[in-house]
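Purpose: get a first structural picture of the assembly so the mutagenesis plan has something to point at.
Setup: two entries, given in the order below. No constraints added.
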Amino acid sequence: MGEWSSYSLSDFILFSADTYYRQFELYNQAVWPLHVVAVVFSLLIFYALWKRPAWAGRVISALLVVSWLWVAWAFLYERFYPIHVVADWYALGFVLQAGLIMRQGVIKNGLAELTNSSNRLSWGAGLLFIALVIYPFIAFVVGRYWKTFEMFALTPDPTVLATLAILLLYKSPTVLYVIPFLWVVISAVTLSIM
Amino acid sequence: MKNQYKLSRRRFLQAMGLGLAGGLVGLAPRFSQAGAGTLITKPIPSTNEHIPVIGLGSSRTFNVGSDPVGLDNVAEVMRHFFNAGGKLIDSSPMYGSSQPAIGYGLKKLAKTGDVFSADKVWTWDHEEGPEQMEQSRRYWRVDNFDLMQVHNLVAWEEHLKTLYRMKQDGKLRYAGITTSHGRRHAELEQVMKTQPLDFVQLSYNIIDREVEQRLLPIAQQRGIAVIVNRPFQRGDLIDELNGKPLPTWANTIGCTSWPQFLLKFVVSHPAVTCAIPATTQVAHVKENMMAGISPLPSKAMRGRMIDYVEKIL
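Result (structure tokens, whole complex):
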């Protein structure tokens, strides 16, 4: 496997920005009206964080599990893998993260207590607002065709950002941060190279 | 009627003359779309089969997934490529959905029998090679590949054995090996010196000329055809040169744009058989194909081209 060292990151980004964003447009057309379900997910998360019922951590975790699994299959494997030969590994990573959240958040109720850190609360709340409310409008704001919009629970970046936000808001196990942080790096590199 | 007869007789004699000249210097007796010059072809040394010096790459540009708009655009680019006399199209399993996109275009244009199909085997597990090549063939919708290359020297010893067997069995016409970005040239040199290759593919352009020192002379000595990838440094060279003036003498070698200038430089090297620029745009493929029309720059002119580009960059 020493041959891998002879490759650079750009060797693996073998699609253009136009093709990349076109996948979002085609995906949004294909999954409509699941966007309504995604909005319901977002509202449930906001409600659970606002009212803080006893089931909040478990339900938010379950919503994240469903979101990570859906993104892994419907976007990363079905839509992204055909144009990006390593996206099947990304999909696998998302499935793994779904499993980790299921174990830590749903089964062990590991997201039961909000953090005491005001900094984390501020960062978490801000990031969550961006991921759930602002993100769908970014495509339009930056001048892309509006139908290439990205939504929490349907596409990777806002799903990962929302997850990181929720992890910041709760006293959460470190292991849950690993894959989201890796994705932030992968996504940033991809967007900068393509 | 008399004038028409005279004109057609004159054109006939011109065609005969060009055909004769073309046969002597390796130019196909074919009029270009612009009506001046002829389509330049070069021989594959192992068989003396001639192919046009401008081919078509598919890395990034043909990777459009299942997007129907993207697939139709690929087919349009291919249509203009074939209309301008193009033959060789190159792809790889590494290029995402480029192979099925090519297959879509070939079927739509009814060109599966006309294309010079060049693909690659790209897997570290050599036992997976035959299955991968068969999948690639199905994507392309061709009966057999003309050329199969070991991608970036990956597991090249075993894959080359497979390719030689396929040649013996009549399932493949040419075997080759590729590298890009100037990677692993020392190892490639050894492969070229010891293996009975028909083709080698490498990166070469007016700025990155390292291959002129060893690899291109070895290809000439050993009778290996050379396909050049990244003739524009993946577009960076054109980005840098855009806005800068072409030299006034560029028209003497038939160049009216920077892409043509860069391509003519590459394919005028005596060891180079063809270059494979990739594009998503019909206008660009038409422009690129004009670089495959005679004349080609002489050795002295090539030196002048280098000097000019190095001066303005």
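The two ends of chain B are 56 Å apart (CA to CA).
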